[in-house]
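hey m, so remember when u said the tokens were messed up on ur end? i reran from scratch. heres the input so u can diff it against urs
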Amino acid sequence: MTQNNGRRRVVVTGQGVVTPLGTGVEKFWAGLKAGECGIREVQSFDTQDLYITIAGEIPDFDPSERKLSKSLMLADKFSQYAGCAAKEAVAQSGMEMPLKGEAGYRTACIIGSGVGGLTTLEFSYKMLFKENKRATHPLTLLKAIGSSASAHVSIDYGITGPTFGVVSACSTATHSIGLTYRMIREGLVDRGLAGAAEASLNWGATRAWQAMRVLSPEGLWPFSKRRNGTVLAEGSGILMLEEYEQAKARGATIVAEVKGYGMTADAGDMVNPSIDGASTAMQMAIDDSGLSPSDIDYINAHGTATMVNDINETRAIKRVFGNAANKVSISSTKSMHGHCLGAGGAIEAVAAIKAIGDNFVPATLGLDEPDDECDLDYTANVGRKRDVNYAMSNSFAFGGLNAVLVFGPPPA
């Protein structure tokens, strides 16, 4: 069965996450429903000379306990996060792996990263310039390359079709999912693993981010009057996407349908976001889905808790949704898991899909008093039950790179 315009339908049959709220979709979702916060004092590196000492670190990740492949055991942490999330997504999909023959070539593996193996590079520079070593680890290059995660996962599962990593800062994962959706929809491939991974929490990265004056030393409080910056985090999110008829034929459990995708660039400023770019991306995703703005029940907002982003995203939602803006439930789950940078869009896509499956909208924590210009329903502090048929997930990155996805329930 295809949509009326003849396009192939694309469904989600597997999900996997590694997040500051825990590893695994059910643990992550339970944390979101309970309103838990994964932002804590940094444990993995010395913060003595930093004024930013909090982050969303992964609390329960030991690669040896996750039974990753031998090649991933030698990889950078961002590739290990991707491998772990992909393993969960593949297991949930019930797909027989590794793929062989034509099936491998009809499968994509699009897994990006905003910065790749940044911790590997920091360690290598430390060895060379501080400890005066004559060489770095022989696998330094392979560990640091931003496409390494996609390559490792393709090797693990015999994926011989389009395999590469997308790089678009905080929109990376959403672009990866959107591109895979389009590849399947238009017949280039039949299935694909899509998402992103990030493991950039280290001294150097924190020093660079705090120099921009966009990080909060206290917490991440989107849309709040007291918000004073975002909080860095790490993790991974991976979706298994499939063409609907093939998924149905093999008896797969379908958890959602990808309904629409939109992407734009502001072409304006590297830091300050545009209302035009964000609103156009949202409108494109809605148009692509064949829905109306009033059909969207939940928006997982980009919601970074920076002064400009939250106001501009609110204005963009109002522009696209009109009168329906006052009826849609919105939340920024970053208030609980932090800003996972390139991986954020996939982790938040999982939250949007779970919201549909569970008819539950997670909260925006720290919203005791909203900003005067942020006057929509952001689901303050406590999540709630409501019917969620269609959900939107927004990603708006530095450089003005915008990507938006719309998800719906499994096809009847």
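this time it looks ok to me. The mean pLDDT is 97. if urs says something different then somethings off w ur setup not the seq
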